[in-house]
């Protein structure tokens, strides 16, 4: 009988928006979780910094001593504190003593994932982290398990709800970045300090995790090229619209194969124009979606709520059930897979495409001088369009694929041409044939 089994004892570290929901569901549905895991699931303690701010936590469970809780008589540690320390030290303590871990800590995994995996392997413990990348969306487990027998070539997605809300609103209303960010803050889509979101740090940590899983290679957040959205202007949005495209902040992880067959991994986060026909183009508001391209499975897309208390708690509890099942049957979850050990390609050597908008003089020879500059840097032009006359003259160029460094050098040289008054905007183009 399930009720006769020893309970799975759980320590909960942190009880914010997500932790509160995790605790509530475990307390409200004990029979459900016992049936799913094969044993009762019992929260034995909840560690918080300020107990008076958590009246929802029963007094006999609450503690400020997270270390003592982790070192105590528990089987699983669920970490929802965030940040690097003390989360790193607490989880290493848990893993080294053979206790399994469930975490939603993307920053920690992106920087110290290999250390945590090594500790888990050495002690025979599990580490699960589905909630670290895309909230409720089942994404990491498919990459880690369902597609383990396939060869993944590309993972491209919208993994930050704040920036997606801002760019979606700019596209639908024509408003500027600053006013849209202010509106996002008022509606609760942006933090009081939105730096981690709008400057791409959040998405870069998630890209590192995705690239590591997809390509069996250790990729850290510092390996990920990162650009935010603060420089995206209404003009960029309008230019994209004129080409039947939209602008999204994308996390792009891909396997790059050179002509000699040498493979490397590229991981980057930056705004990009994508065709409105692309599945990611229709992902609006604060939703997340990730597009996966694999050799056997083909194209897959994962879509849903990427943040919020209840959605993220769903992913955390899914991991907790998996860990508890493993404990009941003396099994083990998937281990780290870094056997490929592919080099991480710097952004300058990564093949990309550019959309370039130029303010140019209205005189003969402008197009030929600009085209000659592209030719000098061995960059091929896909689309060129000249608009307006006189002071309103402009030139729009979309390139074919080339190394990012070559494209950047081309733009720098074009900016020096006498016929070019200003390089108005430069944005990468993704999601269509090159």
TrEMBL record:
Coiled coil: none
Keyword Amino-acid biosynthesis: yes
Annotated keywords: Amino-acid biosynthesis, Methionine biosynthesis, NADP, Oxidoreductase, Sodium, Threonine biosynthesis
Recorded catalytic activity of this chain's protein: L-homoserine + NADP(+) = L-aspartate 4-semialdehyde + NADPH + H(+); L-homoserine + NAD(+) = L-aspartate 4-semialdehyde + NADH + H(+)
Entry EC no(s): 1.1.1.3
ACT domain span: 355-428
Top-level EC class: oxidoreductase
Keyword Disulfide bond on entry: no
Pfam families, A to Z: ACT (PF01842), Homoserine_dh (PF00742), NAD_binding_3 (PF03447)
Cofactor: a metal cation
Pathway annotation: Amino-acid biosynthesis; L-methionine biosynthesis via de novo pathway; L-homoserine from L-aspartate: step 3/3; Amino-acid biosynthesis; L-threonine biosynthesis; L-threonine from L-aspartate: step 3/5
Role this protein plays: Catalyzes the conversion of L-aspartate-beta-semialdehyde (L-Asa) to L-homoserine (L-Hse), the third step in the biosynthesis of threonine and methionine from aspartate.
Family indicated by similarity: Belongs to the homoserine dehydrogenase family.
Name of protein: Homoserine dehydrogenase
Organism: Saccharopolyspora erythraea
């Amino acid at each position: 009988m399930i009720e006769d089994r020893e309970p799975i004892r759980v320590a909960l570290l942190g009880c914010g928006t997500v932790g509160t929901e995790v605790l509530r569901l475990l307390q409200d549905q004990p029979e459900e979780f016992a049936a799913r895991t094969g044993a009762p699931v019992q929260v034995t303690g909840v560690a918080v910094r300020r107990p008076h701010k958590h009246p929802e936590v029963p007094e006999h469970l609450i503690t400020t001593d997270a270390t003592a809780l982790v070192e105590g008589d528990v089987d699983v540690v669920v970490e929802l504190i965030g940040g690097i320390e003390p989360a790193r030290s607490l989880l290493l303590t848990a893993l080294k003593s053979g206790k399994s871990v469930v975490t939603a800590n993307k920053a920690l995994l992106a920087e110290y994932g290999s250390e945590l995996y090594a500790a888990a392997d050495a002690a025979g413990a599990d580490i699960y982290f589905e909630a670290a990348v895309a909230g409720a969306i089942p994404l990491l487990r498919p990459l880690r398990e369902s597609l383990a027998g396939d060869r993944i070539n590309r993972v491209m997605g919208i993994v930050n709800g704040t920036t997606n809300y801002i760019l979606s609103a700019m596209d639908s209303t024509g408003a500027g970045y600053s006013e849209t960010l202010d509106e996002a803050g008022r509606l609760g889509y942006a933090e009081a300090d939105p730096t981690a979101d709008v400057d791409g740090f959040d998405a870069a940590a998630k890209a590192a995790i995705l690239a590591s899983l997809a390509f069996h290679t250790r990729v850290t957040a510092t390996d990920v090229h990162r650009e935010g959205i603060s420089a995206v202007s209404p003009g960029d949005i309008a230019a994209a619209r004129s080409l039947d495209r939209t602008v999204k902040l994308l996390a792009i992880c891909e396997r790059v194969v050179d002509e000699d067959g040498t493979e490397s991994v590229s991981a980057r986060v930056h705004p990009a124009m994508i065709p409105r026909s692309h599945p990611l183009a229709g992902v609006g508001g604060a939703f997340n979606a990730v597009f996966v391209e694999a050799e056997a499975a083909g194209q897959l897309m994962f879509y849903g709520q990427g943040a919020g208390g209840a959605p993220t708690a769903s992913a955390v509890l899914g991991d907790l059930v998996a860990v508890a099942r493993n404990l009941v049957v003396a099994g083990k979850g998937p281990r780290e897979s870094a056997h490929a050990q592919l080099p991480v390609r710097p952004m300058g050597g990564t093949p990309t495409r550019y959309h370039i908008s130029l303010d140019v003089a209205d005189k003969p020879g402008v197009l030929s001088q600009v085209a000659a500059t592209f030719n000098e840097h061995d960059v091929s032009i896909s689309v060129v369009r000249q608009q307006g006359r006189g002071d309103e003259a402009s030139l729009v160029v979309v390139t074919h694929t080339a190394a990012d460094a070559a494209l950047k050098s081309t733009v720098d040289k074009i900016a020096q041409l006498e016929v070019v008054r200003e390089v108005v905007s430069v944005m990468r183009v993704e999601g269509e044939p090159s």
